[in-house]
Amino acid sequence: MAVGTSQTEGPSGAPSPASAGEHGTASGETLHMQLWRGDKDGGQFVEYQVPAQEGEVVLDVVHRIQASHAPDLAVRWNCKAGKCGSCSAEINGVPALMCMTRMSTLDTASPITVSPMRTFPVLRDLVTDVSFNFEVAKLIPSFTPAPPPPGGYRMQQVDVERGQEFRKCIECFLCQNVCHVIRDHEENKAHYAGPRFFVRLAELEMHPLDTLDRRAYVRERMGVGYCNITKCCTEVCPEGIHITDNAIIPLKERVVDSRYDPVAWLGRKILRRPAPMTAAEAAAHTSAATRGVSDAAR
Amino acid sequence: MPSISTSAGEIPLHEYDVIVIGAGGAGMRAAVEAIDKGCTTALICKSLLGKAHTVMAEGGVAAALGNVWPQDNWQVHFRDTMRGGKMLNNWRMAQIHAQEAPDRVLELEAWGALFDRTPDGRILQRDFGGHRYARLAHVGDRTGLEMIRTTQQRAVALGVDVYMECKIVRLLKNADGAVNGAVGFWRESGDFVAFSAKSVVLATGGVGKTWKFTSNSWECTGDGQALALWAGADAIEMECVQFHPTGMVWPMSARGLLVTEGVRGDGGVLKNSNGERFMFDYISPYFAAETADTIDEADHWYDDKVNYRRPPELLPRDEVARAINSEVKAGRGSPHGGVFLDIASRRSADFIKRRLPSMYHQFKQLADVDITTDPMEIGPTCHYIMGGVRVDADTEQTAVPGLFAAGEVAGGMHGANRLGGNSLSDLLVFGRRAGLAAAERAKGTPVDTSLEAGQVNEVVTHALSFLERDGGGTQPYDLHHDLQETMQALVGIIRTESELLEAKEKLVELGERAKKASAPGSRRFNPGWHMALDLESMLTVANCTTIAALARKESRGGHTREDYPNPDPELEKVNYVCRYRDGEYTVTPEAKPEMPSELRQLFEEEEASGGEAVAATKEGDN
């Protein structure tokens, strides 16, 4: 049961990361779980003591606390198999999925803290308001293929594999959570899409069938220039997507090339290739633009 | 914004042409279709967008594209589906499904999906249980994620309004008896909200959380089946529940979690504690002609489908689940009460990691088992309900005007047992058709969309009663636990009359306790309160499954009666129809629509020639 509060700070006050390696949870041992409880007005870690059980993940223990001690404990989860990306949190300060963090990998001799993701506003307890991400999703210029040739589209496995890596993304938003550009600077959210959406944009840019030129838009509206490639996003990705190396860096290169490369500029002049699409032209392919049309039609 | 007065104050009212409840594959596909036809469209879901249970689908989407085996076509797919469903399927749904699935898959590709490819650049297809040819378009073993992301991105691009983390409590009806709206609340704030619409599409998915060991997530509580029944719709085949043969059995916390059929499609075999490939002992006469009866023949089939018959590990799911159940009961199970699924001794580590990356990680991370070196321990897990809301095959219209249903919430398509891969194609084919029919209704004859404040108020008052009841009532979590134990023990894979009667009695008692359940705490993101309301849906499903299982006195597909171990040919022609009238659940046998002769011929030709028909198809003539 709840035995009192151990800390009075906000969710950002999580203690230092867990030490790596296997610790093993013996059945019969008591777990000291410190869960952050509170809402936008503040909160604190509350300690719950529950017996350890073999083979559990953090989410199992949180569920047992919910069922036995705290029926109104708010926690977001769905598949409990690392496939939906709902149960993101910070466990001993380390951003991770609760459903894929085995208790045996944590030092259970010490209290274990679970706090909500810090980059997003707390709604209640472990649940945060991640609507920022769904708003950015509406700003991505949509997939725009050429019409299919007779007999249908053909793509080679090697060409789809680049995009397939990015499409493994389960939208847990842990990469957004650890990105310094928005973790410590709320004001940047207005003009920065974040690693999740650089992955999405890279996927569209490298899609064998896509025809849209999003480079100016990525630079001007998505703010890829703010990323200073510290690779924090790559480190926390539960799907092991090489976010920085395979998505962000190539995206930065493309964006820069299109603007500053004198050879490309000359090539366009000589070969009369179409100029790169402006940010405004690409923006016409976002759902925000679609909505403008359909709203008017109503 | 318009609003409605209730005892909980003014609640906002959102007005649409079409609302879709549920945002898995079927709901998103329906919403895409409705907005594409020019309707104002809302998509309402209990979770965040893109988290629905469709993401869990692994193996692939079944469609007779014929990319790997040119002999494949809709007739073969139709026949496989009907035979897999033990002929209880609605023939017209199975026909539409087989005919339209290829177009729906190609459409996903035009929306950005990246399926695995054949060497000549077309969509690659893989083998699965019950499908004669390699038929499942796939992306490794995360096909569901690809499908949900593709339809999600399409819905967002078209500008569908999405209402997330909103639980719908009841549907509303107008004076003409048509469904014209719904009342729910935001899980986050606990504040209520009403929607009015000319058409309502239910796409809420499954019911797995009613059982103890399940591959389903918390959301799968039968909300749509219950909403439809309460609104006066019919439900069929509620007795036909699929226990997927391969769920994880250990560790306990992962028990029930799905292990894709793709493991067997890619060469994995089932073994008991004596190391025997026991499936050869469980080939029913029904599938004997098309199933290999020696290990040698089975092992050759993976590379040569023309001259060899398929391994018994790839029999339809109901057959494999029952076989595993029997092995465990006979004392030949694995240490944690399952059997062994072995791909490590049959395929290279590289092959396994490339073809089954999610399975590799799932076992590595949750069970500390390396599936490239060790066998997996698996056992049956509640996975899917074949039954559901009865709909018109062409329009997905339920018995109640204005109410449509598609995907797992609807019944008929899969008969008594669903083939793997047919669910994802079902979502696309019937999601689209439901969206289309809903849009046509919305654009057609004017519908009275005015909501009656009294109805809305009744729903709000009822929902709040669980919070206001202090003390005395049972905790919703305890009730859920008791319900799951009851259904697992008494209405599981193998059923018998005495146990079903016992379950029926227990459900009455649980129903009484659930009415008085109390959820302490506030309205804001209170999972105990949400559980109290989800329990109403699960109890409705449990009651229907139990009475329908009692009524169907035979064994067929996902419904196995110990006391009636054989199929009854007469009952192939019968649906058991569940209804909710005056607070009581009823079940009535009704004649099924009859298959036209040109389709029946597909089966008769084969019966007439016996094994020769199979031999002929092996040479590619079908």
Fold blueprint:
The complex is a heterodimer of chains A (298) and B (622).
Chain A: E1 2-7, E2 30-39, E3 42-51, H1 58-68, E4 88-91, E5 94-97, E6 112-115, E7 122-124, E8 127-128, H2 131-137, H3 157-167, H4 174-178, H5 180-183, H6 195-206, H7 215-220, H8 232-236, H9 243-260, H10 262-271, H11 279-283, H12 287-297
Parallel strand pairs in A: 2-6
Antiparallel strand pairs in A: 1-3, 2-3, 4-5, 4-6, 7-8
Chain B: E1 3-6, E2 9-21, H1 25-36, E3 41-44, E4 61-62, H2 74-84, H3 91-110, E5 125-126, E6 136-137, H4 143-158, E7 161-163, E8 166-173, E9 179-186, E10 192-202, H5 223-230, E11 235-236, E12 241-248, H6 262-265, E13 269-271, H7 285-288, H8 295-301, H9 317-329, E14 339-342, H10 349-355, H11 357-367, E15 376-385, E16 388-389, E17 403-405, H12 422-443, H13 453-468, H14 476-490, E18 494-495, H15 497-515, H16 527-551, E19 560-561, E20 574-581, E21 584-591, H17 597-609, H18 611-618
Parallel strand pairs in B: 2-3, 2-10, 3-7, 10-17, 18-19
Antiparallel strand pairs in B: 1-2, 4-6, 5-6, 8-9, 9-10, 11-16, 11-20, 12-15, 13-14, 14-15, 20-21
Helix pairs in contact in B: 1-4, 1-12, 2-3, 3-12, 5-16, 10-11, 14-15, 14-16, 15-16, 17-18
